[in-house]
Amino acid sequence: MKKIEAVIKPFKLDEVKEALQEIGLQGITVTEAKGFGRQKGHTELYRGAEYVVDFLPKVKIEIVLPEDMVEKACEAIKNSARTGRIGDGKIFILNVEDAIRIRTGETGTEAI
């Protein structure tokens, strides 16, 4: 099993969710996040004063899935989250040792 963590722009969430549903993935976890990478934030004006906003709003998506679905899921995320501009986000792929469904006690891929 693998875990995909994707950090994307918030307005792309619905497109990414739909793309993942189209390839057959059912469960995702979404967390609101703030961060910056190469874009280093931006400058805003507030009541005539200029200030730097370092942390930009992002959305973090987490998915645990069987290994054979990873490539399809990554492609779906890349294609639906891409705007072509800096700050589109990142995808991280991690190994998952085990999963346990609390309600039934199922383990492994049956739990996801």
TrEMBL record:
It comes from the Bacteria. It holds the Pfam family P-II. GO terms for cellular component: cytosol. The modification O-UMP-tyrosine is found at residue 51. Keywords: Nitrogen fixation, Nucleotide-binding, Phosphoprotein, Transcription, Transcription regulation. GO terms for molecular function: ATP binding; enzyme regulator activity. GO terms for biological process: regulation of nitrogen utilization. Belongs to the P(II) protein family. Homotrimer. In nitrogen-limiting conditions, when the ratio of Gln to 2-ketoglutarate decreases, P-II is uridylylated to P-II-UMP. P-II-UMP allows the deadenylation of glutamine synthetase (GS), thus activating the enzyme. Conversely, in nitrogen excess P-II is deuridylated and promotes the adenylation of GS. P-II indirectly controls the transcription of the GS gene (glnA). P-II prevents NR-II-catalyzed conversion of NR-I to NR-I-phosphate, the transcriptional activator of glnA. When P-II is uridylylated to P-II-UMP, these events are reversed. This is Nitrogen regulatory protein P-II. It comes from Rhodomicrobium udaipurense.
